[in-house]
Amino acid sequence: MSGLSHDIAAMVANHAAGDEDGFYAVARDVAHRELTEGRRNAASEIREAIEAARDEAVELQTVDDDDLGVDVDSDLAEFIQVSRPDSTFDELTISFELIERVRHLLDEHEHAALLRDFGFTPAHRLLMEGPAGTGKTATAEVVASEMGLPLVTVYLDNLLNVYSAEEDVPSLREVFDRLARRRAVYLFDVFDTIGDDTSSGMIRRVFKAFLLFVDVLGKGSIAIAATNRRGVLDRSMFRHFDTVLNFSLPTPNEAMRIVRSELGDRAPEAVMNEVDIYEQYFEGLSQAELTIAAQSAAKAVVMRKESIVTQDDLIYALTNRGAFLLDDE
Which residues are in the AAA+ ATPase domain (predicted)? Predict the structure, then answer.
């Protein structure tokens, strides 16, 4: 059998077996051979046909508002939420370094076809770890928005309340399987629920179900696991992620930038050593807490029918927010 005949037979066999990856792998081999033998136009046409077919297939798998492969109006609504964010990078309050790493992730997906031609796969298994309020969910929203995909948030703590017995694990796998067929950004919140190294055997089986979900995830989708408690994760779990993004409380300079950005035209006039003035009041406050404090100061000014937040306004709001956190502890 000639090389071309062999390839055609292999493609037919893969198609009949429903092996999409095998089908396209053979097609890419044919395109590569055409290129090496000098038939550039033929190689280009084959590659364009492959990408067009993949794009069409992915588009058909994109989550619809009312079609997640599961009935979100049923009891599954307790732990699955679908949204369509329109967030932008300008809205993020995370560090510039983290923003660059997220942009790099998106670049990989933008060049997915090129990477696949060279045997690479875009990073699609992310672990986001850091204190509450440091921007993990907001970052997931930007990823979904930039990719033009829905964000499917899976609340693992609620999920384990529903599927709490050993005999429920197969049903949980079925839910994951149905979700994985749809193209979306999946955010698994409170991931430490299944990451504790002292967890039961049942929890371990839930983690394996999660890994199977990630393995069968459709091309173009991303799975993000988010945790506030990295310390409780079994270290062996980290190898299952392509990328780990470490979120932290903002530095004093970052905190000042967040507050000024939130206040906008109402921000107080900048002064020398401004960061030094507020640094002690920034301590322990997350990006989300700083935003709340800035909004509180702005509301006080509006109610006084004034236009500019004073230094005292801001210190008062930051102090109150810090005291609230201490009381919460």
Answer: 122-251
